[in-house]
Design goal:
- The protein has 834 residues and is of the alpha+beta class.
- The protein has 27 helices and 34 strands.
- The strands form ten sheets. Strands 10, 11, 12, 13, 14, 15 and 20 form a seven-stranded mixed β-sheet that branches. The protein has a four-stranded parallel β-sheet with strand order 2-1-26-27, with helices on one face. A four-stranded antiparallel β-sheet has the order 6-5-9-21.
- A hairpin with a 2-residue loop joins strand 28 and strand 29.
- Helix 21 crosses helix 23 and helix 22 packs antiparallel against helix 23.
- The longest helix is centred in the last third of the chain and has 22 residues.
- The chain is globular and about 110 Å long.
Length: 834
C-alpha cells in the first residue's frame, strides 16, 4: 500500500506526453482562462525550491480552473536576452548563445518535473530571431509614431557592466544586476516616450485587480505632480532661459537663489569666466556620485556659484544662479527656484552659503490669539545677517523657518494677504498673462532609456544614411540578426561590441540604396518581456507578431503570477507596450494583466536563496527522495502564498506522511466501496465548502490543511467503509495539488484517463446544516441546563424538550410560566413567578 511515487510519476508523465494532455484545444467550446507565470531568465544556476513556489501556485490554479470547466492556456518560455547571460559568458568564455541554450535545456527539464500543465508547443524564446523579429517590428512602429527617439543626455552608467541603465534599473544608487555604484555618462541614447502615457498608466491602475502595494509602487514611480512651469531669463544672456517646475508657485516671491543640476546644458553657457574653473571641477566631481548619494538629506551641502544671475519673472530682481549636486538633471527640469524660507533643503543650503531668506507665507493665527510671524516678516541673510528669533529658536513652532504649512502671503507684492492656495492660481494666472509661465503637470517618471552598449540583445533596427538621415529597417528586412562573434566583451567606451564588426555595421540605406551604417546598440533585456504574453496565443505566426483574433480571444491574462520585485520594471513596461500596441490598432484591450498575484519568497536561515550565499536547496534532490507531489504540497503548505516562508526540511517529512496516509486510506476502499451514508455526505460537503472558500480566497496553505483535516475525519469513518462518491471527490480535489497522485487514484476507481477531464464537484447545501444543535435553557434568565435538539426542530418541539429536561422541570414545578422565549438554535427562556 506504499505510494511508489517513482513508478507512478514515470507512468503518468509518459501518458501525458503520449496523449498531448496539456495541449490547448482552441475549438473546445469552453470559456477561456489564461494563467501565466512571469517567464524565467534561464541562468546557469538552474531552479531552486524558491522558484518552484510560484510555478506550483500557478499550476494548482490552472488545474483548478480546468476542472471548473475552462479551457486553460498555461504556457512557458524564456526571457533569454540580457546582461546576466552576457556577463556569465564573459566569465566562463562560453558564447552566450551556447550557454543560454544549455541553460534553457536544464530549466526545461526541471520545469517538466514540476508536473505543470504547460503547453510546450507554445514555448517561446526571446533570443530566437523568429521572436525578436517581431520585437524589432514593434520598435519600428514606435519609431514611426514618434515614440522612439534618439537623444544626447546624461544617463545612468554602470562601470562594471559597462552599459547604460534606465532609472528603474538603479536601486539605491547601485546597478540592480551587479550591485556596482552607478555614475553618470553623457551619451546618445535611444529612448521610448513612456511619459506620453503617464496619465493613462496612472489612471488605469484603478481598473486592475492587483495588490494595493504594487499599485502604490507604480503610482509613486510615475509621480504625478500638479504645479506650474516658470521661466526665468538670465541677465546678460538673451538666449538663455531657465525653466523650472514647482508645486509651490505661491512661494515665487521668496525665491532668493536658483540651482541648476551640474549636468544642466546651460551651465557651460552662463558660467562667468572667473567661476569657470571652480564650476567645471565641481561638475566632474558630481559625475562620480550616484543619484542616491546626491540626495542624502543630512549630508553636508555643497555647491558653486556660476557668477550668473537670473531675473525674477514678476519683479525683475536679480537672483544668483548656483549649481549643486542635490538637484538632479533627470528629475523635473534639472533646475529649481530655491525658496529657503519654505523648503528644508533650500534653507540648509542658504544657511551654508549665506544666501538670503525671505518669508513669503505666514501662518494664520488661531482665533483669539495674536500668534503669527515676526513683525514685518522681512528678509534676512542666512548665516550672514540676522535670521530672526523664530529661526534661532529652532523648528517646532509656526514661526520657525523653514515654514512649510499653509497661511497667507507676505512680502509678495500685489498678492500680500491672500490665502496661499488661492495665491497659487493667481500667481500662475499672472505668469501666463506675461508669458512667463503656465499651469503644468510634471512626472517623476522619465522616458525609458531603450539601448544597451552590449552584445547579447536585440539589434535596434535603425540605419544611418548621410542622405536620408535616420531610417528604420523595413519589415521585409527583419529580423536584423545578431551576428555570430568571437568577442563580445563590452568596450567601456560607450560603444557596443557590434561597432567593431564592419560586416555588420556597413549596409545600404533602405530608402536610397546608398551606403549606410547600422545602429550598434542593442535593446535592453526588458524588450522581449514587454510583449511576450501576446505571442503565446499565436506563437508560430510568421506573418505578424500575433493575429488580432487569437490575442483578443485569450487576453487580457486572467491570472499573472510572479515576484513583487518587478512592480516598476517589467509590469510597468508591459503595460506601456500594451497601450501602444492597442493604439496602433493591433488589439482591442489596453491592459495586459487583469489579476496579479505576487508570491512570497522561500528563505533559508532568514535569507533569500542564492547560489552566492550558499543557501540553495536543489529540487532535484527533494524529488529523488520524496517525489514531485510531496514537494508541490509542501511548497503550498509552508505558509500563506503571498508571504515569505522559511524552508524547513522537517516539514517535508510531515507532508510525505500525509500523502502516504491518504494513498493507503484510498486504496483500502477503492476496490470495494461501501454504500453511501449520511455521515459521509455531511463530511464530504463540508470539506468541499471549506476547500472552495479557501481556494477562491487564494489561501492555498489552508487548502492543504483542509485535506489533512478531511483525511483525519475519513479515517475515523473508515471502519464502516468509504463510498464511491467520497473517493471520487478526494481524487478530483487532490489532483490540482498532487496531479500524479490524483491521476493514479482516479484510474484505480476504474475511470478512463484523465481525472482532469472530469469536473470539480459541487456542494450540496443540504448537508452543510447540523443534525443537532445545542441550546441553553434558562429560567428567569439564568441557565439551568443545556440540551441537544434536532437542528430543524420547531418552536413547540424545542419548548417541550426544554420543559421536560430533568434539570429544568424542578424549576418549573408549582410555578406559573408567564412567558416562553425561543431563540432558534440558541436558547429557551422560561419567565416564571411564584
Amino acid at each position: 500500500m506504499e505510494y511508489r511515487f517513482h513508478e507512478i510519476e514515470k507512468k503518468w508523465k509518459k501518458r501525458w506526453e503520449e496523449t498531448g494532455a496539456h495541449k490547448v484545444r482552441e475549438d473546445s467550446g469552453k470559456p477561456k482562462y489564461y494563467c501565466l507565470d512571469m517567464f524565467p531568465y534561464p541562468s546557469g544556476q538552474g531552479l531552486h525550491v524558491g522558484h518552484w513556489r510560484g510555478y506550483t501556485i500557478s499550476d494548482v490554479w490552472s488545474r483548478y480552473k480546468k476542472l471548473q470547466g475552462y479551457e486553460v492556456l498555461h504556457p512557458m518560455g524564456w526571457d533569454a536576452f540580457g546582461l546576466p547571460a552576457e556577463n556569465y559568458a564573459i566569465q566562463t568564455g562560453v558564447h552566450p548563445a551556447v550557454s543560454t541554450a544549455q541553460n534553457i535545456a536544464n530549466f526545461k527539464r526541471q520545469l517538466q518535473e514540476i508536473a505543470a500543465m504547460y503547453d510546450w508547443d507554445r514555448e517561446i524564446n526571446t533570443s530566437d530571431p523568429e521572436y525578436y523579429r517581431w520585437t524589432q517590428y514593434l520598435f519600428v512602429k514606435m519609431f514611426e509614431k514618434g515614440l522612439a527617439y534618439r537623444k544626447r543626455m546624461p544617463i545612468n552608467w554602470c562601470p562594471s557592466c559597462k552599459t547604460g541603465l534606465s532609472n528603474e534599473e538603479v536601486v539605491d544608487g547601485k546597478c540592480d544586476r551587479c550591485g556596482s555604484d552607478v555614475t553618470k555618462k553623457e551619451m546618445e541614447q535611444w529612448m521610448l516616450r513612456i511619459t506620453a502615457y503617464a496619465d493613462r498608466l496612472l489612471a488605469d491602475l484603478d481598473r486592475l485587480d492587483w495588490p494595493d502595494k504594487v499599485k502604490r509602487m507604480q503610482a509613486n514611480w510615475i509621480g504625478r505632480s500638479e504645479g506650474a512651469r516658470i521661466v526665468f531669463d538670465v541677465d546678460g544672456h538673451p538666449d538663455a532661459r531657465i525653466e523650472v517646475f514647482t508645486t509651490r508657485p505661491d512661494t515665487l516671491y521668496g525665491a532668493t537663489y536658483m540651482v541648476l543640476a551640474p549636468e544642466h546644458p546651460l551651465v557651460a553657457t552662463i558660467t562667468a569666466p572667473e567661476q569657470r574653473q571652480a564650476v567645471e571641477a565641481y561638475v566632474q566631481e558630481t559625475l562620480k556620485k550616484s543619484a542616491i548619494a546626491r540626495q542624502i538629506v543630512d549630508k553636508t551641502k555643497t555647491g558653486v556659484f556660476t557668477g550668473a544671475y537670473a531675473l525674477h519673472p514678476l519683479t525683475g530682481r536679480k537672483i544668483p544662479v548656483w549649481i549643486a549636486d542635490y538637484v538632479l538633471m533627470d528629475y523635473g527640469t534639472g533646475a529649481i527656484m530655491a525658496v529657503p524660507a519654505h523648503d528644508e533643503r533650500d534653507y540648509d543650503f542658504a544657511l551654508a552659503f549665506g544666501l538670503p531668506v525671505i518669508r513669503v507665507i505666514e501662518p494664520v493665527p488661531a482665533e483669539g490669539t495674536n500668534e503669527g510671524s515676526p513683525a514685518g516678516g522681512g528678509a534676512a541673510l542666512a548665516g550672514g545677517l540676522e535670521l530672526g528669533a523664530a529661526a534661532a529658536e529652532g523648528a517646532g513652532t509656526a514661526d520657525a523657518l523653514p515654514y512649510t504649512g499653509p497661511g497667507r502671503l507676505v512680502n509678495s507684492g500685489p498678492f500680500d494677504g491672500m490665502d496661499n492656495e488661492a495665491a497659487k492660481q493667481a500667481i500662475v494666472a499672472e505668469l501666463a498673462k506675461q508669458g512667463r509661465g503656465e499651469a503644468a503637470v510634471s512626472y517623476r517618471m522619465r522616458d525609458w532609456v531603450f539601448a544597451r552598449q552590449r552584445y547579447w540583445g536585440e539589434p535596434i533596427p535603425i540605419v544611418y544614411c548621410d542622405q536620408c538621415g535616420t531610417v528604420a529597417v523595413p519589415e521585409d528586412q527583419l529580423p536584423v540578426r545578431l551576428p555570430d562573434v568571437e568577442r563580445y566583451e563590452p568596450t567601456g567606451t560607450g560603444e557596443s561590441p557590434l561597432a567593431a564588426i564592419e560586416s555588420f555595421v556597413r549596409t545600404t540605406c533602405p530608402k536610397c540604396g546608398g551606403p549606410a551604417r547600422r545602429e550598434t546598440d542593442t535593446m535592453p533585456q526588458w524588450a522581449g518581456s514587454s510583449w511576450y504574453f501576446l505571442r503565446y496565443p499565436d506563437p508560430h505566426n510568421n506573418r505578424e507578431p500575433f493575429s488580432r483574433e487569437a490575442v483578443n480571444k485569450w487576453l487580457p491574462v486572467d491570472m499573472y503570477v510572479g515576484g513583487v520585485e518587478h512592480a516598476v520594471l517589467h509590469l510597468l513596461y508591459a503595460r506601456f507596450f500594451t497601450k501602444v500596441i492597442h493604439d496602433l490598432g493591433m488589439i482591442d484591450f489596453d491592459e495586459p494583466f487583469q489579476h496579479l498575484f505576487n508570491q512570497g519568497m522561500i528563505t533559508l536561515n532568514g535569507a533569500k536563496m542564492s547560489k552566492s550565499k550558499g543557501n540553495v536547496v536543489n529540487p532535484d534532490d527533494i524529488i529523488r527522495d520524496y517525489g514531485v507531489d510531496v514537494l508541490r504540497m509542501y511548497e503550498l503548505f509552508v505558509g500563506p502564498p503571498e508571504e515569505d516562508a522559511e524552508w524547513n526540511a522537517n516539514g517535508l517529512e510531515g507532508v510525505s506522511r500525509f500523502v502516504n496516509r491518504l494513498y493507503r486510506l484510498f486504496m483500502a476502499h477503492a476496490e470495494h466501496p461501501a454504500p453511501p451514508r449520511d455521515s459521509l455526505r455531511r463530511l464530504r460537503n463540508r470539506f468541499l465548502a471549506t476547500l472552495n472558500e479557501r481556494m477562491e480566497t487564494f489561501r492555498l496553505n489552508t487548502a492543504v490543511s483542509a485535506f489533512m483535516e478531511y483525511v483525519n475525519a475519513l479515517s475515523a469513518e473508515a471502519d464502516k467503509g468509504l463510498d464511491r462518491e467520497t473517493l471520487e471527490t478526494l481524487a478530483v480535489t487532490i489532483a490540482p495539488f498532487a496531479p500524479y497522485l490524483g491521476e493514479e487514484l482516479w484510474e484505480r476507481l476504474g475511470h478512463d484517463y484523465s481525472v482532469f477531464e472530469s469536473h470539480w464537484p459541487e456542494v450540496d447545501e443540504r448537508w452543510l446544516r447540523d443534525e443537532e444543535v445545542e441550546i441553553a435553557v434558562q429560567v428567569n434568565g439564568r441557565v439551568r441546563a443545556r440540551l441537544k435538539i434536532p437542528a430543524d426542530a420547531s418552536e413547540e418541539q424545542a419548548l417541550a424538550a426544554a420543559a421536560a429536561h430533568p434539570e429544568v422541570a424542578g424549576w418549573l414545578d408549582g410555578k406559573t410560566v408567564v412567558k416562553r422565549i425561543y431563540v432558534p438554535g440558541r436558547l429557551v427562556n422560561f419567565v416564571v413567578n411564584g
